[in-house]
Every structure is written in C-alpha cells, then in structure tokens.
C-alpha cells in the first residue's frame, strides 16, 4: 500500500473514532487551553505513520516556526529521560497544540470527565475501550512500524536510512531493538500479535 493510501486510511480511522466517540463526550471537562494532558499526564505516543504525517505538516510551516518546533523536539529528546513530567514539544506558549490537525491518536482519544491536574484523566469506560479498539486498527495499518514518545519517533524518522526502510515497507524494527528497549517503544507488529494493549502501554490512565 502506498504512503498516500496509508494516510487516507489513517484519516478514515480517526473520523470513525470521532463519530463513535461523540456519545461519550457530553460530560467531559476538556476545553481549549486545558493542557495538563500535553504535559505528560497521558502518554504522548505516536506510531511511525502518525509521525510521518507530523513531519509532512512541519514542512508546510514557516521556517521560523518549523525551526522552533525542531528545537523543542531536540530539547525534549535530551531532557525527557531525566524528568517525570515533560511538556510536549508541540504545545505553544498559549497552551494550544501547534500540530492540532495532525496530532497523534494518543492525544485524539484522550478526554476526561474531570480536569486532569496531577491526578490524570478519568476516561469513560466505553470511550477507553473504543480507544483501544481504534489503536489496534492503527497498529495493524502501521504493522511494520513502531510506537513511542513523539520526539523519539520523529528523531528516528529524521535518520534518512531508517525513513527509507520504513517508507518502502522493508523496515524490520528488530534492527533497532536496543533503542526500542531503551526508550520504552513498542514494535507495532508485536502489539497486533499479542493485542494486549493495556499491558503494552506503560502508565495507562485510570478509567472512570
Ligand atoms: S484530558 Fe484533561 S488536561 Fe486534557 S483537555 Fe481534557 S481535562 Fe484538560
Ligand atoms: S501533540 Fe498537541 S495535543 Fe498532543 S500532547 Fe502535544 S500539544 Fe498536546
């Protein structure tokens, strides 16, 4: 399948999730500018396919904005291993997402019935389950890729050889197994096979 078709299918999966999720959203506390979830309350994880969509989007931005975001990614990569809570590199100074249109599913699925603060989100059970089912569909679509913290995955894709292998569909993630282990990433194919996503995602939030 071409990269363009994979993007198309990804957008369809997002759209179907949004449609199904609507029934759970009446009582959520989420609102623009509320951003604890962007400061590592939830996982800021992305699949390789979603990271490719982010990179594509970054190319469309003004050079000054793009440079700022790349500098944030670099800082985030350097500092994340040392800090428990880290601001997402894409969160701007007004607490808005700079890549809202292409934000990964780990952000799209996150809604809470209480304001998160330090306690983390409380997600309606049905919405959590729908999120897991949808995540499984994304893993299947990106079965030869990996999933991990957004800065780490973007850095891997900035390596020309890694990106070439990934885009051609010839990537065997095992070639970077040490990096995968070191940065708590997962191999999507393994997630599809086991499909025990709750165990594979460290720090899964409480469910309401
Ligand atoms: S998930 Fe939590 S922090 Fe994020 S918008 Fe909703 S209430 Fe705010
Ligand atoms: S990508 Fe956007 S929505 Fe997701 S954590 Fe970062 S700033 Fe928040």
Layout of strands and helices, then pairs:
Blueprint: H1 3-21, E1 45-47, H2 48-59, H3 63-79, H4 105-108, H5 125-141, E2 146-149, H6 150-157, H7 160-167, H8 177-182, E3 186-187, H9 188-194, H10 197-200
Antiparallel strand pairs: 1-2, 2-3
The chain binds iron/sulfur cluster (SF4) (2 copies).
One iron/sulfur cluster binds at residues 38, 44, 88, 90-91, 97, 99, 103, 107.
Distance between the ends: 38 Å
Give every kind of bound small molecule, once each: iron/sulfur cluster
Q: Helicity level, as a percent range?
A: 40-55%
**What is the helix/strand order?**
HEHHHHEHHHEHH
How much β-strand is present in the residues? under 5%
Integer-rounded radius of gyration: 16 Å
- Biggest sheet, strands in spatial order? 1-2-3
User: Overall pLDDT, averaged?
Assistant: 89
Oligomer: single chain
Largest sheet: 3 strands, antiparallel
Low-confidence region ranges = 202-208
Shape: globular
